[in-house]
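Please review this one:
***
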Amino acid sequence: MKQKTKYIWLLILLSAAMVVMNYNFVDNYLNETLVEEEKEIVFVDRVIDGDTIVVGNQSIRLLGINTPERGEFFYDEAKDFLTELVVNQSVVLEKGREDRDKYQRLLRYVFLNDKNVNSELVEQGYANYYFPTGFDQYSYKLINAWKNCVNEKVNLCSRSENVCAKCVKLSKFDYKNEEVVFENECNFGCELTDWQLKEEGRKKFVFPEFVLEKNSEVLIETGEGVDTKNKLFWEDGENVWTKTGDTLFLRDDEGKLVLWKRY
């Protein structure tokens, strides 16, 4: 009787093992198949800017990143870097969570010789990460690329040498109510004219002619109003900070990084 019970249990274990093995095989097969279906090999004809390429008649926006706009610091450098890297090259495109943006551009990650081009742009300081609709499969890789860039202090990640960069601190960041407060911890006034407050995307606040007095604070609030020495209004800045998470970047008048804060 014991011998029979032993064989029954052995049969049950073998059957379970076969089910697990078959499940893993099927699961792996489906995952690999689905991932491959999301990939496409294309030939890059030209580059529009640092985060947009053209394949045939189709514009493709690189996912997860945002590069400087025309007229901003490092716009030309980002465009040149991407041009040299991918133009007249065959690359692999991979889909993320969304297929197209509101301009009907395809949204894709771009790979060249197994290198993630999107991540490379961030790590080399030509872009910041950008997740307007939330995280996807490469978001953490892009965040780590940005951290590496900051550690290396290259291009967009190069740190401000302005004497006030060590004085100005972020004392409040209430993204729900869209309020940002900076404090001058030094015992002298700081000229912040043309400094820039920015989120991950295109929305940007440029400081007017303004001095942040010693040991004082300034509140930057979205909406219309009259600027004072303690309050500035980001008139075109409604709905700046996304519910899915965003990042505040503060840069000096030379485009150098003063501080950044992600939530």
